[in-house]
Write the structure tokens for this entry.
Amino acid sequence: MLDNSTDFKEQMVEARRTQILMGAAQVFADKGFHKATTKEIARKAGVSEGTIYNYFSNKRELLLAMVQMIATQTLRGSFFNNPPDDPKEFLLLLVRDRYRLVDQYGHIFAPLLAEVFSDDELREAVYQSIVMPIAQVVEQYIQKYIELGKFRQVNPVIVTRALIGSMALNTAMKLALVDNRYETISSDDMTEQIVELILDGVLK
Amino acid sequence: MLDNSTDFKEQMVEARRTQILMGAAQVFADKGFHKATTKEIARKAGVSEGTIYNYFSNKRELLLAMVQMIATQTLRGSFFNNPPDDPKEFLLLLVRDRYRLVDQYGHIFAPLLAEVFSDDELREAVYQSIVMPIAQVVEQYIQKYIELGKFRQVNPVIVTRALIGSMALNTAMKLALVDNRYETISSDDMTEQIVELILDGVLK
Amino acid sequence: MLDNSTDFKEQMVEARRTQILMGAAQVFADKGFHKATTKEIARKAGVSEGTIYNYFSNKRELLLAMVQMIATQTLRGSFFNNPPDDPKEFLLLLVRDRYRLVDQYGHIFAPLLAEVFSDDELREAVYQSIVMPIAQVVEQYIQKYIELGKFRQVNPVIVTRALIGSMALNTAMKLALVDNRYETISSDDMTEQIVELILDGVLK
Amino acid sequence: MLDNSTDFKEQMVEARRTQILMGAAQVFADKGFHKATTKEIARKAGVSEGTIYNYFSNKRELLLAMVQMIATQTLRGSFFNNPPDDPKEFLLLLVRDRYRLVDQYGHIFAPLLAEVFSDDELREAVYQSIVMPIAQVVEQYIQKYIELGKFRQVNPVIVTRALIGSMALNTAMKLALVDNRYETISSDDMTEQIVELILDGVLK
DNA sequence: TATGAATGAGATTTCATTCAT
DNA sequence: TATGAATGAAATCTCATTCAT
């Protein structure tokens, strides 16, 4: 078989996988993982139920595949190579970039996080593929600034999770529509306030 | 029927409900809500499956009842009436008290939070009964100190969720055993570092 | 719990198992094991599909249970203790007793034998529980008569299977209605002819 | 279209059918008819799933086609025309020839026989195409020798099935590896003992 | 009120067969 | 004619819930 024929096939397979994943993401978002039926996923994805199983070995694999899909949306290399010197600029760039990811894949995150509580393997995958990569960047940055004497002697691990947790809960509140005071808070304002809060907490 | 007879009966009913809830909590913690079977809950609770339905109308009600059970573990009135003047003392007392709650009911929180992502009513209940009461105390305290000129002009809503989110994610990391660096961090250290971080972020 | 209550419960369980097995036997006989659906088994047995699984862990267990049921229909102890001295009398008694079993459980044997070809565990069970016990009796009898000098020096293992195989294929022909010449052959005639055939083959 | 072109085409078709049947035979032997998937048959046969359906109308047809394939392996004409006069020679020649068939097609027989119990049409086909032709030869031979006064007044139908059943069960025992005493019995010994057994049973 | 056997709706998954390329 | 992706019917099995005792 010729190379471009193989390529073509691979592309078709990838396109089909994505098509199915998107359907699954919608249904998972609506119903949650357990109440989502393969029948409805198939309908939303525009394929038959059987076709799902030509591309994923079972329903749960759909969740794991979503983790991988999100994980590939990494930070641009430029960011890693030349992180801005100004801490505020650094954190704002980073946080806004990740916030955009949540905005884009928001409907995927919720069912994913829900299952993380009861699925050990999924939890590990989410942590290793999604949380760790970004957390490491922040930790190392903080560590460097502590050594430079610009930050207080804080624990970078804790502070990093504090930043992520602060963003996560506030974002969740915004998306969950459970507290209407969030309607008047813009994402940019929220992001900036949180970055400043944490930053002032670590600055000497 | 005499009053004390009614009381006795009510107590029996309450005791049975608790007995069942405790069984359910254990199984939910082990398996998650969906993979927990009523058969196993009954066994763990030491009752028959049928009996569960004499006290709860369905499996999901067990989750809602757990929210109420946790919600009753409110802060002591004394805390509300005479909150410590020193912000650090205030926040530490508060956070440690809540942390104790998580320690005690930790196995209930995970399955509860998992379902919060896909169950609107449960989400509302958790927010109103568990998050809001404590959040309000913090918000009002922050508001007061802003007005007193001791805190910067921050948004109390955001800062409060930042504090809660910081504690939540760090605690989750500790409990999830997914990052072994948390093994060397004591709860007290963690709590104090987070409180200081947020506090330094809001102090003028 | 009192003994007779336990007994009663055990009897109920046994009765239910038998009820389900009988339903399964009918459907297996009609359709064969694989084309038999649990839905139809349930209907024939007069229970719901779910009930089947309260008594058998899966569809295949129904087959194994049938083997056990047939296996319990052993030869009377008197037969073992005082086998008739006359070889012809001995073999006729034995063969007719077993033939009666086939007559009674005939509809169970067919699907059982069909699966024996592709299910190792079932094959082992059928051999150990059904074939071996009866085969051993015959083998030992033949062996004894060889030693007494009344039978030729034949291999008791082969001769025993020859007898069983002769009976089996002729019986199958009768039951399968595939050769109408069998319509005019009575079971008793057939049995006697086969016993005589084998016996004359071994007698000195 | 020219004759030899048609012939060539027919040969190609026949070759393809055989290729597919051989693949199917292997998988049927491994898994049994029902657990064999068309996907695996296609793989073993070295064709695609679709191609199977260009040569056979459905999976079951594969079984029927196997019956025909075995049926064509008939006894040599010479055997029919000049059967040996000596009964023992006659039976040994016949039985050994058929035993060779089982040896060669053994892996096909098991799944075939399994289905025979629940598939009326297949049963009829096996009986008419495989059992009957050989059985008739034996029956007529026996009949002739009875008339010649060399055999007792036995029923040729029963005796013939007794011979076939004796061979079948003993052979099955050997192949099924379920009774290790068969490991020390050679096929030739077994064949001869059975022929002698039956023959002594019918000889005057 | 407590029990637990019975229920049956419903979900996942398999796989023979079809059909566009 | 060959391919193999797509199909969707159908089957097994689970389990929350009911109800007779």
User: Anything to note?
Assistant: The domain at 70-202 of chain B is CATH 1.10.357 (Tetracycline Repressor; domain 2).
